Structure formats: C-alpha cells, structure tokens
TrEMBL record, chain A:
Coiled coil: none
Pfam families: PrsW-protease
Alphabetically ordered keywords of this record: Membrane, Transmembrane, Transmembrane helix
TM region positions: 21-42, 48-71, 83-106, 126-147, 154-171, 207-225, 232-252, 272-290, 414-437
InterPro entries found in the cross-reference section: PrsW
Organism whose genome encodes this protein: Planosporangium flavigriseum
Name the record gives this protein: Membrane proteinase PrsW, cleaves anti-sigma factor RsiW, M82 family
Phylogenetic lineage: Bacteria, Bacillati, Actinomycetota, Actinomycetes, Micromonosporales
GO molecular function, one term: peptidase activity
TrEMBL record, chain B:
Keyword Membrane: yes
Residues that span the membrane, as ranges: 12-32
Organism per entry: Planosporangium flavigriseum
This protein's UniProt keywords: Membrane, Transmembrane, Transmembrane helix
Name of the featured protein: Uncharacterized protein
Keyword hit for Transmembrane: yes
Length: 438, 182
C-alpha cells in the first residue's frame, strides 16, 4: 500500500526554520506587506471610522466558523496553530498588499493591448485569477519550504491553502466594504457594510478564495507526500490543481450569467449558486476522499498493533467512516452523559495522536514493518499508547459510574458553530431574496 | 538539528524564485504598464459610448486614457486627457434625484480627491448641476446630470488652473453633449 500520509520527525523544527532563507523571506514579506496594508486601510479608517471598524469586526467574526471548519477538516492530525496563522497572514497581508498593484497594472495592460470595453467585461476574469492565484500559491510554497514536515497528506495541503485563501478573502471583503461606503458618497454609513457583507460574505463567500486555494493546496499536498511518483507526475498534479483553481476563479469572475438569466436579483442569486456550488462541492468531495484515504492509513497502523485495548474493531471502522466517531460519541453520551461524550472524544484524540506517532515511526524506520527496529514501538509511541489506555480506563469508569444519565445528544461545539453560521447565512440570504422580490 | 548545506542552498534558491515572482507582479507589471502609452486619439466630433446607452462627444484635441476608461452596459467610465487636464465621465445606474446626485459627487470629490472649497454656483443647463473645486495645486470643475431618474452621469475635470480655464468652454460643451439613447 502506498502511504497517503508522510509524516516526518518534528524535533527542532522551530530552530531549524529560523535558519532557513525562506523564514526571512516570510518575515520580510509580512513586514513590508503590513506597512502597505496599513497605508491602504488608514485613509478609509480616517474618513469612515465607524463603517471601517464595523467591517473589520464583522468580517473578523465571519472568519471564525471558516477557521473552525478548516481546522476540523483534518481531525486526525491537527496542524500547528502558528503555521495556520502564518498561512492566514500570508493571504491577508502579503497577497492583499501585492495583488492590488499587480491587478491594477494587469487590468490596464489588458485595456491597452485589447480594448477598454474588453477590459471592463473580461479584465476581472483574466487578471484576478492570474495575479491572485499565483500569489496565494506562493504562500503554499512558503509553507512547504518552511515546514515540509507539517505537510503530511493531501488534506494538509488543502487546509493550508484554505487558510491562505481565507486570509485574502476576508481582507478583500473589508476593502470592498470600505469602497462601497466611499462610492456611495453618503458619509460614514454602516448599512453599506452590511449589504457588502451579505453579497460578498454570505452569497459569494462559501465558494470564493478559500475554496480556490484549497484546490491548489490539494496539488501541493500531493506533490509533497507522493514522493513515490515521478517529479513530472507530481508537477503535473500541481499544475492541474493550480489550473483548476484558476479556472474556478475565472468562471466566478467572468461576466457569464451576470444578467441572472434575465430574472433580476433573484436570477443573479441563482447564477451565484450555479457558478459557485460545483466548485464548493468539488473541494468538499476532494477533501472527503483524501481524508478517507488518510484515515484508512492511520487505522491500518493502529490495527497492526493487534491490541484491542488500544483500538477496538468498532473504533477502527469509525475512524474510516464519515461521522463514525460522532456516532460513537453519541453512544457514549447516551450511556454516561456529557462526561461520557468528553471521555470518548479524549479517547479518540489519543488514538489519533498515537496513529500519527506510529506513522512517524514508519517514516523513520528502515525496515518494512512500519515500526522502529524489530516491531518495537518508539519511546514516543509508547507514551501515546499509555495515554490511550488511560483514556479508555476513564471512559470505562464513567460507563459504570453514571449508567442512568440519558439525555438527547447536544452535539459538539463545532457543529453548533457551523449550524449557527448556516442558520444566520440562510436567514440573511432569504431576507435578501425577499427584499429583491418585493 | 542542523540543516544540510545542500538543503539550505535549495531553500535559498526557491526563496529567491518566490521573491522574483512577487517582484515581477508588484514592480514588473506596473513597469510594463507604464512603458505602454495610455492615450489614444479619438475621432473628432464622434460620440464615444460610455455605456450601452450613454454617449459623450469628446472635447476637441482630447485623447482617450485607455488605462482608466471602462465602458460598460449600465455603468461605466470614460477618461479623456486634454493637455494636462483630466476630464472624466462616470455613469452609474442609480435612482437618485439631481440634488442627491450632486451631493454624492461633492462628497466623493472631498473624500476621494481631497477636494476643498467646493462651490455650487456654476451656471448649468436645465436638468444639471455644476460647480468648481480645488484639489491640491489643481483646480477642478464638475457637472452632474440625471436621466429618467435612473441614470446618473458625473462629469469632472481637474488640472492646472491656467489650462483648465482655457479648455473649460470645450469641457462644458462636451458635458452638454452627454446624451442617453433609448
């Protein structure tokens, strides 16, 4: 079996990163980008303080469910927060600061080389994807060069790509809100910020930069992980995914369906769904397939231990299935209430950490067994096994101690957050449609 | 744990590559854009379509600034250069009264250009508002028209005071030529 994940040893990663030229490139790009971004935001903040601050706060809150969803894409092996923040900052600061002059110049070039009318219609579709997708892709390259060890699977590439795209998407939306206020020429008004939030955040947000760059990230993840494939194949997959991201972005920005099938605003909302829906579906299916493959690999490592105290056959099946662990947590909740659910969650987290540690043993082992010499666990994996056993004992103790505690399963915080976000988004979208129809 | 020399070199090489792409986008593209001429001659006396329905007859001797001009279906803009005077026509599909449209333009001039001393007492034909302003060392002139209460046309001109005074009659005539076809 070809490993779909490729963990590395992590010792000394931070100290190692500081010695890398790319680290200083990142520091320089973030510093210069921050200064330029501040120069862009400062005039809007001075002229329209209430509207600009409202936009910043609104889109900062908007970011939260996205981050929660992205981080939970790879629930088996969470990415280090500092690297996720770096990816977000690259999108928010570096891409924004560099895309603005690049987009303006490229759009002007299109007008000069073809015609102003062509640039007005097709400039955003041609220029935006070329400049922005390249700049966001460079962020992925920086993450790979900085911490290759952290790109262990295709899902990891998607996670970092999504974070870069999200950073850019959020700052771009804030700038659109500020522009809307200025264009209206009606002073420091927040209603335009809210309408920008609905249009760009709610209606256009779910299938925007976050998804585009996640697609490109899948290619990068593949190229880093699948070292068993030739350079040409890996480069081809990277090009295919980057091209796919570009194509999705192009289709989104293109004037196609801009008239909303001739049905005004409701038609335009349907056109947004037609343009964006397939892109989001593609990214989610890709993430699901990659995650399932990754989970299968981790499950095989746990299974190879042959110890049912560490992982039971039911738990192995749950690792590999969509929502399998949630079902087991619900069962634990039914048996022992919220404490049971928490204990079950802790057990599965311990199992995931053990699986990742075992896979590091695989990466570091010279033999085919998958574990360190002579099928013996590495010291770190041994510690993880102890954690799993301790967590299982805690869960078993709760099962005995609180057998009568039965309440309906309330769901996880993540599910509540995402559910709440969907409800708010749905209500806002519905409100906008009703407003357009009446 | 140290980083092998070869790894450092490869990392430096890739980093330089990333830096080169960023430089190409942030500096190369603008340089290339500046290297190409932005002004194009427009036929004398021929109406230029700012949108599918709104046209303007450019002032004599005007050159079209293609880097700023973006004609559209319902909204668009056209920018002409008359010497060092910049003459811009902005069309937007907005439901505004003439007074509200004039207020909006004055706010935009103040917030966008940093215009000051905005006067509203310029003579204007029926159905239009006009005025003067100052933006730094430049003087400016503006006019606003609203067609059918659905299409707002802003015309603004700015440039060195002497040159603006010279070409202002031609600009007024161009603004008066703005027409909306069905």
């Amino acid at each position: 079996m070809t490993a779909p994940v490729r963990p590395r040893l992590l010792a000394g990663d931070l100290r190692r990163a500081v010695r890398l030229p790319v680290f200083w490139l990142l520091v320089g790009a973030l510093s210069i980008g921050a200064v330029r971004l501040a120069a862009m935001v400062a005039p809007a903040l001075a002229r329209y303080p209430v509207a600009t601050v409202t936009a910043i706060v609104l889109f900062a809150l908007y970011t939260v469910p996205f981050v929660v969803f992205i981080v939970n894409l790879d629930h088996l092996e969470r990415e280090p927060p500092v690297l996720l923040a770096t990816a977000f900052a690259w999108g928010a600061v570096v891409v924004t600061a560099t895309a603005v002059p690049g987009n303006l110049a490229a759009d002007s070039l299109v007008a000069k080389l073809v015609s102003p009318r062509f640039a007005a219609a097709w400039g955003p579709a041609l220029v935006g994807p070329i400049v922005e997708e390249i700049l966001k892709f460079l962020g992925l390259a920086v993450i790979v060069l900085l911490a290759t060890a952290q790109i262990n699977s295709v899902v990891d590439g998607m996670v970092y790509g999504a974070m870069i795209g999200l950073g850019y998407q959020v700052v771009e939306n804030v700038s659109y809100a500020a522009n809307a206020v200025q264009t209206a020429g009606a002073g420091d008004r927040v209603d335009l910020v809210f309408s920008t939030f609905i249009v760009r955040g709610v209606l256009a947000g779910p299938w925007s930069h976050t998804v585009f760059t996640a697609l490109a990230g899948a290619g990068v993840g593949y190229a880093v992980v699948r070292v068993d494939r030739s350079r040409a194949v890996r480069a081809g997959v990277v090009a295919l995914c980057l091209g796919g991201a570009w194509l999705c972005h192009f289709a989104w920005n293109s004037p196609l369906l801009a008239d909303g099938f001739g049905f005004g605003t409701p038609g335009q909302i349907v056109a947004l769904l037609v343009k964006g829906g397939p892109v989001l579906a593609l990214a989610l299916v890709l993430a699901h397939l990659a995650r399932r493959r990754e989970a299968g690999y981790y499950a095989s490592l746990l299974e190879a231990l042959g110890d049912s105290r560490v992982v039971t056959p039911t738990e192995l099946r749950a690792i590999c299935s969509l929502g399998g662990q949630a079902a087991l947590r619900r069962a634990a909740y039914a048996r022992a209430g919220a404490a049971g659910e928490r204990a079950a969650r802790h057990l599965y987290e311990c199992q995931a950490r053990l699986a990742v540690e075992l896979s590091r043993g695989v990466a570091g082992a010279s033999g085919p067994s998958g574990f360190a010499d002579g099928d013996r666990l590495t010291p770190a994996a041994t510690v993880r096994v102890r954690e799993v056993l301790s967590a299982r004992h805690a869960l078993a103790a709760l099962d005995v101690a609180t057998p009568g505690s039965r309440r309906p399963f309330a769901g996880s915080t993540v599910m509540w957050l995402i559910g709440g976000w969907v409800a708010v988004v749905g209500a806002l979208g519905l409100g906008l449609m009703l407003r357009a129809l009446t | 744990m140290g980083v092998p020399h070869a790894g450092l070199c490869r990392n430096a090489l890739y980093s330089l590559g990333i830096l080169a792409v960023i430089a190409a986008i942030t500096m190369g593209l603008p340089a290339l854009d500046r290297a190409l001429p932005r002004d194009r001659a427009v036929p004398l006396g021929v109406a230029y379509p700012v949108t599918d329905t709104v046209t303007v007859i450019p002032p004599p001797g005007a050159l079209l600034d293609v880097s700023q001009t973006r004609p559209g279906r319902d909204s668009g803009r056209a920018v002409f250069l008359v010497g060092r005077v910049r003459f811009a026509i902005l069309v937007s599909a907005d439901r505004l009264t003439l007074d509200a449209a004039a207020d909006r333009l004055r706010t935009r001039l103040r917030d966008g250009l940093g215009a000051s001393a905005i006067a509203t007492d310029e003579p204007a034909p029926a159905g239009a508002r006009a005025g003067r302003f100052r933006a730094g060392p430049d003087h400016g002139w503006y006019a606003v028209r609203v067609f059918d209460a659905t299409t707002v046309v802003d015309a603004t001109a700015s440039g060195p005071p002497g040159e603006l005074t010279t070409v202002l009659p031609a600009l007024r005539a161009a603004a008066a030529s703005i027409a909306r076809t069905a």
